[in-house]
Each structure stands twice: as structure tokens, then as C-alpha cells.
Amino acid sequence: MSQILLTTQQIFDIAQFAGLGVSPPTEDEKNIDYVLDDDMTINILGDDDKRGYKYKGLGIYSSEYPEEGAVPLNNPEIEIKEKK
Fold this sequence. Notes:
Helix content: 10-25%
Radius of gyration: 15 Å
Oligomer: single chain
């Protein structure tokens, strides 16, 4: 498992390098940290809250607010599950 800590400024620089038109971060946003993790497990709820998915793979989350959730960043290995 590998993790990389990136600031908003670094993510902005990567986006510019990739040719994406994104707005620069504000001074308050520049130093917010995000964790890029290559072996995350993320539970994703379905539309009806009964069916969901378990994502395993590359993802990113805010180091300040990990409870706010994570974003999957590649084609996931998905396991469909039923809530009881």
C-alpha cells in the first residue's frame, strides 16, 4: 500500500500540466492536504440505499476531513452487495 500527500496547490499544478483549464486555489486552499492511496476500500451506497458497491483501488481523500468521504480514481474492482 502506498500513500502520497498532496496539497491543493500541487493538485492544481498537475491539472495545469495535464492541460486542464482550472482556477487557481485561493490562499486559504493552497495548503489543504489530500491523501492519494493506491489500495483504498470505499463503500458506495446505491440510489435506493439498499444496493451498494465496494470499491477497491486508487482513491483520494482530504486529510483534514477523512470522514467526509473519498473519491475513487480508476476503474474499480466492484463488488455489489445487498444491505439487510
